Amino acid sequence: MADLTTDAVAKVLGVLATAIKDETALLGALPRNMQFIKDEMDSMNGFLLHLTKTETAHDDQVRAWMKQIRDVAYIGEDCVDRYVRDVVPHEPEPHNGCGLGLPYVGDLKFFLCHPKKYCLRRRLAKQILELRTRVNDVGDRRQRYGVTVPSLTPELARRQQEVEKVADDAQEETRKDAFRRALLLRQVGSSASSLLGLGWVKAKARQLLADNTQPLFVREAIGKLPVHVRSQGATIVRDIWMKCSPPDDETFRCIEMLLCALYACPYKLDNNVELEMLRRKLKDGAAGAEEIKRQAMVFCYSLLSTSQKSCLQYLTAFLEEKAISRTSLVRRWAAEGLVGREQGRTPEEVGERYFKELVFRGFIHPARSSDAGTVKSCHPLAGSVRTFIIDIAGRDNFVAELPVHLDRQIRIRQIVLRTQTMTTRDDAAAGKPMDELVTFLAGLPEMYRLNVLDLGGCKGLKQRHIKAICTVSWLKYLCLRNTDISRLKPSLLKGRLTMLETLDIRQTNIRPGDIKSIFLPKLKHLLAGRYLTNGGDDAGTASAWASDEVELATVDMPVKIGRMKYMETISHVQVSRDGKELEGVARLHKLRKLGVVVHGNERTATQLREVIYALAGCLRSLSVWVTHHNQQGASLDISFQEEATPILILENLDIKGRCSLPSWIERATKLANVSLRDTGMNAEETLRRLCHVRSLSCLTLDRRSFVGQVLSFKKEVRFDALRFLIFDGDTTCSLVFEADAAPKLEKIVCNVGSVVHCGDLIVGIQHLPKLEVIELRGNFNLTRLRELMNGVTTATNASKPTRYLCRYLDSGEKEFVEVPKTTTDTTFSLPVGVTNQQNVV
Known about the structure:
- Among the domains are: 16-152; 157-394, no CATH class; 743-841, no CATH class.
- Helices cover 42% and strands 15% of the residues.
- The strands form six sheets. Strands 4-5-6-7-11-12-13-14-15-17-20-22-25-26-27 form a 15-stranded mixed sheet, sandwiched between helices. Strands 19-21-24-28 form a four-stranded mixed sheet. The chain has a three-stranded antiparallel sheet with strand order 1-3-2.
- Helix 3 packs antiparallel against helix 5 (115-145), helix 12 (273-283) runs antiparallel to helix 13 (289-302) and helix 18 (406-420) packs antiparallel against helix 19 (432-442).
- Mean pLDDT is 75; it is low at 1-21, 95-102, 155-170, 185-212 and 396-403.
């Protein structure tokens, strides 16, 4: 009996010894396997970059092999990140077996002290071992089937150097803007026809086609093309027009995209081979109009960079949505790792450059723009571009770095959009789609990470859903904007979402104190705030309440904000009465945008001055909303002593509430946008100081920004760079311009509220040589406006040339009516009967 027992124990000990050795070998090989995977990732990345630079088409073998590499590279990147995050900080120190000759004693001790971390380390070690085997299989498969990699020609290598050179050209944006203006015929004053809209241009173009004549805007755009592509570019445009006659909207869009591509990428077309190939395809007699437009779009798409193609294809996740915010889209691109790396720029800055380029090329269509022309949101995909990109994304296009989980992003947005269509009778089952989302998240493969979760606008969000979302450890972007969530308990976030970079809780009812105690070590963007009317109703976005009385309800500033060293954006959060949290903000040397709601006291002013001084070299945008004033009613002063003023790179300044204009504003050499609201400043003194801001191009004077009803722009206070002026028509009854006061002013916007002006609203229009548009926003009588437009347009076309447009934008119907104005108009006043308001001054 004892012998049997001894044999049984000996067998168990033998099995255990073998198991321990295997376990030790598995965990001991982890660092070596990680180094192998890292080296393979570098090689794979170089391989993919090489393939994107080759001119020849990739055969089926190369494309299949690329797909395998892409999948392995994505999983490998995930394993490397998990290793750095979860293993390296807790790696056990090497042991010599405590003198017993047992190398596994160190691992055993680590297991007893940290069982959870040991299990995590072991699971990752198994996954990495499996990944290494898969990497070896991919390499063997290439040799087995003789997959060869196309070589990079010297000519193409030279062009890649040209790409980098052009990307660093600081003047490129200005030149592209001028080219786009010529293309879209926005040069007001070039002809009366330019003011009659794109419809007139298209009608005129069809008429000119009969005479084989190109319209003026096409000839102007072709004339701005680089010399070596100008001739063939003109030939190709003429071929498209003749083949697609009569041209429709898509034909015009195709031509615009082609001309922009030729202008943006001449360095890729030095030998004109690509243009000649396109011309031959267009000359093909069998090609119909649709095929010709498709070939032109393929040509334009081929001139995009790899990363730009990836970002463009990512838009297929938003096909069911009307519009998407520019900043939201750019942050998603960055979180997904779609943007390339550029020295000296953050991923968000690179993404912004991509967005501008895609807008310029015509692949992205703006939905809403600021008064200064900055695109705020875009239509995901429109027209023929939509069909084309869906077709491209549906293929096995391995050149573009399309995320493996893009289909999951589409699924998430579908679930969110379903919640938005619910009625009040669905409240009992409001959690069902969100329960489906939680189940979907729980079922995601462990080897793939979810970087982005956009729940913007969804309804039925419960605490159990938030708890489940907080377990998605790899999440980098979380949007809860405009949801019905009321709590974001700090206990749910504690120790979780450690990789989160963007937290968007705007337009929510989250309690102010819920954010105060959070600590998210990798957070870059904290976006909060909800605009409310006097009655407590939602006032929408900031652009919707220019003349209304609103207040901002927001969350408290996190007390540990100073430890979140990666912060780039804080907008808008409440600061306590003593402003103590601002001490931590002053330590955030990567902060680019700061928006705070503050108390109007000296302590807060001191803290704000310290923040501006400490962050002078990085802060680009500052927004200060003063909501609580001291008993004396004095304005908040954030000025420096003149000798202590640092070199500021501030570009945007937004002040709301009783706050004086800071003394350092005249030395902010890059300040381009200033917005004032409820500041109650002295008009003459403030304009005198603002005119010294040499880079100021956009000035917004909202409700009660000045004391007085007349704003006089005199020649002594010349605004050399001012292009856009926005003012409130209720509190400012008249603008007066003297000669040379604003020589570059292009656009004047007036928010017409409840007051109807009988006198002149703008005087001295003849002193504004660059004026293109006067835009009025309010509640208008559209029928009366259309009658006025028809009469004025007929008279204008028959006699005097048009100088600028008067655009009436109705706030209710979201429609606008444009009325041309002649060169003899020196003043402007609201015509009788065009507004629905009753109060008259």
